[in-house]
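Allow me, if you will, to draw on your knowledge of protein folds for a short while. I have a record of one protein: its chain in single-letter code and its fold written as discrete structure tokens. The full record is reproduced below for your convenience:
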Amino acid sequence: MAFSAGDESDGVVAASFRVLGPLEVSGEQGAVSVAPGRQEIVLGALVLELNRVVETSYLVDVIWPDDPPKTARTQVQICVSRLRKALSDGKVDASIETRPRGYFLRAPEDATDLGVFGRLVTTADALARDGRKAAAVAALRSAISLWRGRCLAGLPSAVLAGTAAQLDQSRLEAVETCLRWELELGRHERLIGELQQLVAQQPLRDRPRGYLMLALYRSGRPAEALDVYHQGRALSGEKLGLAPGKELRRLAQAILTDDAGLVPAEADEPSPAEATSLPEPETCAADDPVITPRQLPADIGDLVADGRIVSAISGAVTEGPEMGPPNMVVLLGGPGVGKSTLARHVAHRLAAEHFPDGQLYCVLRGPGGQPVDPAAVLGRFLRALGVPGQAIPDALDERAEMYRSLLADRRVLVVLDDAVGESQLRVLQPGAGRSGVLVTSRGQLTGLPGARRFELESLSPEQGIQLLGRIIGEQRVECEREAARSLIRLVGGLPLALRIIGARLAARPHRSLTTMWHRLEDEQRRLDELTHGELSIRASLSVSYYGLARTDRRLLCMISLAEGAEIPSWLGAALIDDRTLDPADLLEPLIEMRLLDTAAMDQNGEFRCGLSEIVRTFAQERLRSEISEAEQVAAVRRMVGGWMALVDRAHHEIYGGPFTIVAGRAERWQPPEVGLRQCVHDPLGWLETEQANLVNAVELAARCGLDELCWQLATALVTLFEARGYPELWERTHQVALAAAQEAGNERGRAAILASLGTLHLYRGEYEMARPYLGTALEIFERLREPTGQALCLRDLACIERHHGDDDRALVLYESAERNFVQARDVVGRAYVLGEMAHITMRRADFVPTQRYLDEALGICRSAGFERGQALVLRRQGQMMIHQQRYEAAERTLLEVLAMVGAYGDLVGEGYVLHDLGRVNACLHRVERAVDYYSQSARVRERILDHRGAAAARADIVVILGRPMKSAG
């Protein structure tokens, strides 16, 4: 039976996607049409990586390997959209999902003929190991019948062509294995025609030539068998300058001497012990001796690594079926994380037992971070394998063919250190056989089908201490264990940095670890300290840095201005003033080079990134050197302007508009729509998520002299500080903003901050401390004729008068505040004042105006969509019901309010409402329930540092129980 292209009649289940030949797609209704060109290329790439994420950047490379257009990513999105429609219309059992970095083709594993092929090959391998060769041959023939030609034939993509060529090699391996098993089963006569065809197609491969010689000999045609050998010998010498492989020569000698070992067993299904042993041909570089390259650099004696990781990497390099493609393992990580050190260690560990035919090694990143030419690497490897210089061809393709031929039947470990990109690796990967490839890279290298990827991380504190102990002595580290931990934390556990620290300390036995830590704390000299001899963190980072495009280098420098541990992706676009629809695209080059860490992903699928302290220090050094101060200030203005735009949006979502806040004149930078999603969906939750970044932005704006942005952002954050209980951040940001406004002579900003600080004192129950702040702010606002500012000050001054029991004076101030809110068209501010006026009339038992005030306030809040205001007004209604002794109705209303503030996350409101519910249940003589509500109120108020409110709740418990209660704090 010849190895021909197969179809469904061969007994193999039809697949939805067929890539073992020209690309074909089928669904419930038959063949599905896919537009030729880009759509075919994108689909082909997705099918080859079925059920794995394919990055957008890889798809761009697959379509445009040399010079992609600026709209490349958009065009990929369009292709994916059209493919989704085609698959849906054709009712194909598959879907293309969007992921943060690219796309994911989800389908059953058997949805591709490639998946079926792999499953059948694995099955055949297992059957052969069990001694069931006939069944194994049947499974393997079914697998091979799936091929309809060359993989992805006719697809116009050089990148995919390289991948397809590797898969074609897998087919050839399967064919050769099947032929070997059939020869072991004594089926030599029926195989001669197939073997002759295969030798004609692959004239330089020793294995099929040896099988043909053996089949001819066993069929009683020894002279023809020797003719086949001599033809191969002549061809190998002419094309490669090499003699036939050692095993092929041995087979020819055995045929000449009529060796009895070449006679097959009688049975068609021999037992493993009886099966005739077939020669495993090897390609030799020369007749005698065989050259075995040993190019690995020395292993490192003080390596500290997780034994589980080392074992996993070792297993990935060596495990797998005998006839599969060579294993490729990629170690990924940032500069200095120890990729090369670990790769060398694993390579030495595996060399003798698993790769006795040699180890090849090359660093693929040249001077200036430029990729080393693969042709040059192949030239070195071919010489190491024994090929004379004059026999090495000039063309890259011919060198790659010779390289693959030499490794086809050898067990060689190829270590490729610091790879720059996939294009280097494709020609350096053995085509078939039992060799292994171990790669290290700073980039992602996601476009290598079948490669196992391991992300290396920095050392844990205990591992760091272990490494320092091996370099400078365990006793020295143990004496200053806390200082050692501080050093490890300062450099983020980076192995290279710790080696440099250890080397410097080893060279200076008199220097303590504490002294070293203090020297490294100075950011200006940190990189100078992290240099020793040829070891240098700055040099290591420079390789990655100068491997970036100029715009990407500029972006990294600008990102170092943002001081948060995690930043959203839109911020990078703001820093360089790029209006890209998907700002995450801008960050990908930095992420791929491991200079920017992907710290997390928010609920909207937007990346949050961060810089390690070492990279931040390096980037800030480059920032000071390469970017002017004016450009830095402009970048900060855009970044803070972006935060301001988002906070504006969150404020509008909470209050229903630009209400209860003094407006400023600072320019905003509008982030793309992706940055708006969470601040619209959950504005208060978004403010809390970004709390650290927002506080940093206030302080950064102050340092850069951006006083207008500084005070506006600080006052806009009060909603968060008040609702979630952050009085210390309230004061911290406002003191910074007040100093910035005063230094700039910004009277509006100064008044807004003073007024807000007055509100903070009220929040803390410090009523008399609030009065001077509010009084000064009111004077400035009156001078500026700023109605919103005046209204806010009058509202809070009224609160002070209420506290002192002067409701008449408070009512006058509230009425004045209401008039100013009306003038400012601030309906929400007016609603708040109406609610407070209702509280005064309620305490006087004047319920008619109270109800009027509350009804009007509730209508305003509902119209504006101000949920927090609605809760406040409904709470006042519940309190009025308590005054009216309508306790059951009051409880229902207050429970509704409790649900509202709980869903909203308003801890201040929750504390108040729980206290009110305690009062209601006390009035209803439900002592146990009342105590429970008062206790909950005390706990919530302690949590937000409202000690006065917590004390009041505990006092009410004393009253109801007649005994004191311990503080929750």
Summary: Residues 461-533 form one domain.
